[in-house]
Structure prediction request, 243 residues.
Amino acid sequence: MNNICVSVKNVTKQFGKHVVLKDINLDILEGEIFGLLGPSGAGKTTLVKELSGLDTPTSGENTVLGQKMPMLNVINRIGYMAQSDALYEDLSAKENLQFFSSLYGLKGIKQQERIREVMKLVDLTDHINKLVFNYSGGMKRRLSLAIALLHEPELLILDEPTVGIDPVLRKKIWDAFYQLNEKGTTIIVTTHVMDEAEKCDRLGLMREGSLIAIGTPTELKQDTHSSSIEEAFLVYGGEVNED
Prediction:
């Protein structure tokens, strides 16, 4: 039986009178690639920020790797990649990696090894000494992923990691995800790209702060008699009637 990696229990989040998350309940298993699919404003980013320890719910609780969040010793076991690239553009990629790896306590030979490994994984080895200012958008996304992987996290949380990326680079990034997953890393990825949703082991469909369905891509399509995840999403959202 797979162990539960993430447990979300009755989580609600409000900013003033605006309810962003509405009584979310969700379990994510160790070793799976779990996708949160929904349009902008559905609450995906708010939820993953809470799971990363960067925010707290108004009510309910999030348990990650067996501990209630936020918890500092758990945050150190998580790799988080935000929608916006938090990079120092006047430094080289190598200097960025050295800085962030030092925050994780990586030093000396271990630091050098991890920098080499993550840059190889995201296919940026030949650009390690280039200033980040000269990186393309896709290269910055891959460097952000490399930084999130430096400390070999047990759980990788990725908020729309391929937004604005061309199809070839998206495939490279997903190839990297699969490699990590094969080694046992649990991955949570938010997306509004339907073909990416098909790549996940299971999906949580989000709309207006609510979790409207959970299942494998195949289950979600079968349950709604749909030929695509997009159609299934519309059925669950009430825009399209089931046949």
Summary: The beta strands are 4-15, 18-29, 33-37, 59-64, 67-68, 78-81, 155-159, 186-191, 202-207, 210-215. The first strand starts at residue 4 and ends at 15. The chain has nine helices and ten strands.
